[in-house]
User: Fold this.
Amino acid sequence: MAESKRIYRLLLKLYPARFREEYADPLERQFLDEYREAGGPLARSLFWMRALRDLAATVPGEIVREMRQDLLYAARIYRKRSLVTALALLALAMGIGATTGVFSVLNALLLRSLPFREPDRLVQLWQGGISVGGGRAQFLDAKARSPYLADAAGYTSNELSLSDFGDARRVIVTETSANFFALLGTEPQFGRSFSSEEDTPGQNSVAVISESLWRELSGRDPQILGSTIRLNGTPMTVIGVAPARFDYPAKTSVWTPTIFEFEHIPKEGFSWTSIGRLKPGVTLRQAQAISEAEVAQRSPEGLKRARPNRPELLSLRDQLAGPIREASLVLLGGVTFVLLIACANVAQLLLSRVSERRQELTLRAALGASRSRLVQQLITESTLLTFIAAAAGLGVAYWAARLASAVQPGGLITQQYTILDWRVLGFTAGLAVLTGIVFGVLPASLAGRMQPSAEVVRDQPGQSTGTRRMREALNLIQAALAIMLLAGSLTMGRSFLKMMDADLGYRTDHIVTLNASLVGTSYAKNGNQVQYFSHALDRLRAIPGVESAGAIGYLPLILGKMRMATGFRVENGPYTVSIQNFVTPEYFATIGTPVIAGRDFTDADREGLESVVIVSQDFIGKSGSTDVIGRELSYPQSKTKLRIVGVVRTPPPDNNATKDLPMVYFPVSQSNTEFMTFVARVRGKPEPYLGISRDAIQQVDRSVPVYDAQTLEKRFDDYLAKPRFYTTCIVFFGGFALLLAVIGIYGVASYSIAQRTKEIGVRIAVGASPGVVRGMLLRESLWPLALGMAAGVGGAIGLGQYLQHLMASAEPVGKWSCAAAALLLISAGAVAVWRATARVVRIDPMTALRAE
Amino acid sequence: MAKPTPSPVDELLPLPGPAFQMLLALGKGERHGYALKREILQRTGGKVNLGSGALYGSINKMLGQGLIEESDERPDSHLDDERRRYYRITPFGRKVAQAEAARMRELVQLADQRLGLAHG
Assistant:
């Protein structure tokens, strides 16, 4: 009997709270009556079965009914406090959405698989022991002797000219060893990959092309197999087509097995990379240990070098994700802050609900009502809020993921992923629900547990110091997080403005730029480059509307171009590492770079006459020599003495590794450079001139690829795109954090005033002026803020050190950014509190006291 | 929670079987839950045996619809357990029960016309 009663009482807990509160007693009572009447053991078992069936039939219906009522009630409550609710919703939606979006991209980059077989077993050998530099036999030997690699391949990627299919074009060509595709576990979708002997010089004139190139060249015509393409003039036979969207590494369009015969395809640069597959059973860590020991034996000084010049064995996945990983982590950090601040706002909203209902709750507790009823209502309220926010967050997430993936670097295009990650969305929504439960339900539950006494019942509801302390603590946390984001965003914003404002040393408006490469053409073979460039410039200058035109070997802002750095010295001075660049007369005038001293090159600076150079202004500082005009410059690669004839303004730094090196400009007419970027200053909008200029230069010789025609403004924009994206995000997060924090502060202040009306009435009745009372309330509200700010400044400095990895010109978060952020937050907070205390003036002491 | 506003009579028709049975039982006077169940069980010859969950679920719903209300009066505190709750029919509940009966009568008449009533 007692046993059955206990079990039934437990089962009754399945009913929702209000129903249980109303009917648990009569249900139990009736159960006992009928149980007693049932008599024998068989009848009692039958009765139990009936009771269980009854429970199963009625519990779901009651739950749905009460949930509906609770939801309607919650909706009514939220409508009444629509502004606060809308802000909390907005905050949560932004937090959930942005976190989900950024994390989805991060997840795709870092956690999901690459389109290779067993991608976790693939490694990159950074300046490792297995080198293609010593030729094929040595490479195969080193590979076979490796204690930890089952296989290894070498490759080099370069932008080359592809001809024999319509106009010449520029494509990324990866020259590899024959086992490249086999190593990655990727087979051509059509045709075949390289056979193992095909990387032997003499047999290597074959190529696999990408699906997109297949489409562009022949509209996916199967006849492509066996046809010939020319890479920088070298004929290659197409033998296969790579799978769709496979373009590893670095957006490759053509793969050839020519790594061991550098001269086969003429090109400018040559640096190779080795990748490998770990032997079965060898972990990455073990392989790294062995590799380090090898390096220590081979070249101990290598281990002392800083990255990226230190020999290292890296997981290929890390290597691919590397460039975007840190940036994405910073973004993720930013959105997590926003999410946390949003959760704190929701917590504030729910806590105020708890305080409001405290009296009701205590009364109910005193009357013996169940606590679970209120808890159930609060859970419904917070869950409703979260679900609406999560739905809105989906939209934000989609947008954020698209944006975040738009800035990914080229090496990651091999990734194929769906953007939205449902697990992540679930995680963030779960976090929000947890917030709801921790801040909305737990305090209510604790409050309800308190001993109901007459005193508590009579007391003012909001007087509970517990929830007030909690709200103050939340304000503190919000302030700390907001300061960190604000200081970070101020720093980023400032350095971005500096980048935009940086004196470029040239003007970006009204300028058309386009590239031409003579590598592999008859001009290069016959030494007629100068002739070509001069004809091309003549055509360019002949276009109506072109005011002036010139050309340069390496235009600042052209990313990823290899620059040649060499030591130069003035007479017997020290060597200064500088970049060797080539320009035509009129280049500096066209792009607006002032010649500070001496003169520009002229047509008179020809081959066979005195070799002349122009140096950039920072060369003077770095070389330590003043008054360089007319002095002699020399460099180890050549016996020729160079005469410095001019000094020009230093060009701006760009994203290249050589960004800080000074420039030494040679006249094109005295060099044998094969690659130039033409620049032309035009009247009016530059865009219409892009096609015209390309056509004009192409008329010189259609077999020379003229490509990448862009306005200089566009190039500058592209250069700024990534920092602009991060800056915009962080500044937006910072602003949003400030808004949320101010809402929180206002909420706490105005709430505490509403709850302390009586006390304030007394103070005014005994003679305190409203101004004095408001001052007191202001002080009380601002101290958690001040504490939070102190914590936030510490965090901000740490955050700033991290941000420095992100932008070329990012600075550490300085005291001024922190001070500005603190000032911004404290003044916004003070204004919010002052506004909230406005109603103190209207408090009539008599009315306030009568409430007693 | 706000007081339930009685919905128009028609919207509640047809009444679920147990609800009609309960209104009929309450027509004779106040009852507590268990008494309601027993009376219905008896009247239907053991065919309608409401489980406690179904019984109080119906009571809860009918309270919400304004068909019945809780009675404050207790017959005699010595005779009865204080935990028992008594319910009585509201004037609105009476109207709804009457409408339901009228609806049934129409149904019976229709059946008589079409099929003929079995007499026996």
User: Anything to note?
Assistant: Chain B touches chain A through 20 residues (CB under 8 Å). The beta strands of chain B are 31-32, 68-71, 86-89. Chain B has a mean pLDDT of 83. Chain B is about 50% helix and 10% strand.
